[in-house]
Design a protein that fits this description.
Mean pLDDT: 90
Radius of gyration: 18 Å
Shape: globular
Number of helices: 4
Order of helices and strands: HEHEEHEEEHE
Low-confidence stretches: 182-191
Structural class: alpha/beta
Distance between the termini: 34 Å
Number of strands: 7
Length: 191
């Protein structure tokens, strides 16, 4: 995805959020550190443009709620900043990539320490599959089927200087042919 694709995906997600929630009353966006935070802010800005009023936005650090704490080197921690009480609100968690679902599970645990939302929804820029937990995003910018050894890198202007989503393959990895719906034996042949 290039910068225009990222922008279009966020605009589409914003319209889907408004439609599903019949507006933005009692709606709070909460970005998961690191890249979910600027995505949540951008999404809040788009929702504000659509609805004509600001939407509350916050940031959530899930580092201490992860189930792999102690299994890997600790990452940097960030401040959790929520816009008031989330109790009784509809919270839209925002993240860049949905993969195994473990970060989202940690975010759910962290969020309920701050109150009991009426509902929690999930918006992600990229869903790459390979879930290890029974979680699904409510709003997806783009589904990107990947191999387990590939990596999806989201770059944002706020953190990386430019917007892009890039698929990284390990060195020497074979490039898989695109699925066209035509059997492999017939691809590239003339009838």
């Amino acid at each position: 995805m290039d910068a225009a694709d990222v922008g279009r995906a966020l605009t589409r997600i914003a319209h889907e959020v408004v439609e599903r929630n019949k507006g933005t009353d009692d709606l709070v966006l909460v970005g998961i550190h690191t890249r979910g935070v600027p995505l949540a802010r951008r999404l809040a800005a788009r929702l504000g443009e659509i609805e004509g009023r600001p939407v509350a936005v916050g940031a959530l650090d899930v580092a201490m709620y992860r189930d792999d704490i102690g299994l890997r080197p600790p990452g940097a921690t960030h401040d959790t900043q929520l816009p008031g009480d989330v109790g009784g609100k509809v919270v839209v968690l925002v993240d860049d990539v949905l993969y195994t679902g473990r970060t989202i599970r940690a975010a759910l645990d962290a969020l309920v320490d701050f109150g009991r939302p009426r509902a929690i929804q999930l918006a992600v820029l990229v869903d790459r599959g390979h879930r290890e937990l029974p979680l699904r995003a409510d709003y997806v910018g783009k589904n990107v089927p990947t191999a387990a050894d590939e990596a999806v890198r989201v770059r944002l202007a706020e953190t990386d200087g430019a917007d892009a989503v890039v698929l990284h393959r390990p060195p020497g990895a074979e490039i898989r042919p695109a699925r066209t719906g035509v059997p492999a034996a017939r691809r590239g042949t003339r009838a």
